Amino acid sequence: MNADAIARLRARCGGPRDGALLRFALGQALLAAGDAAAAATELRAAVGFDPHYSAAWKLLGKALQATGAAVAAADAWRSGIAVAEARGDVQAAKEMRVFLRRNESAPR
């Protein structure tokens, strides 16, 4: 996604259609653009709007890991695993377990 698309998404934040999906899309775009810190901020907002959004938890962990915040990434994935399991989202839980394992075995 390019800077114009990110700007359009940001312009919608705070408006009547602001919510988890918008913040997730913005976080995803920012992460793809290489701005992991800003992505983490938007993804935290996404799970603030909907704490049961397992995909947002998964991407939040990835964004946090990209910023070097391994402990915070692990916490996000643990929260996401709990949410995914409660919702029956087996695949998301499995993916986050893999990310968590890799994160925990990474050299510090």
Topology order in helix (H) and strand (E) letters: HHHHHH
How would the global form be characterised? globular
How large is the radius of gyration? 14 Å
Give the number of helices. 6
Structural class: mainly alpha
Instruction: Domain count, please report it.
Output: 1
Per the CATH scheme, the topology name is Serine Threonine Protein Phosphatase 5, Tetratricopeptide repeat
Range of helix content:
over 70%
| CATH homologous superfamily classification | Tetratricopeptide repeat domain
Task: Describe the largest sheet.
Answer: none
Number of strands: 0
Mean pLDDT reading = 95
Summarize the structure.
This protein is mainly alpha-helical. The protein has 6 helices and no strands.
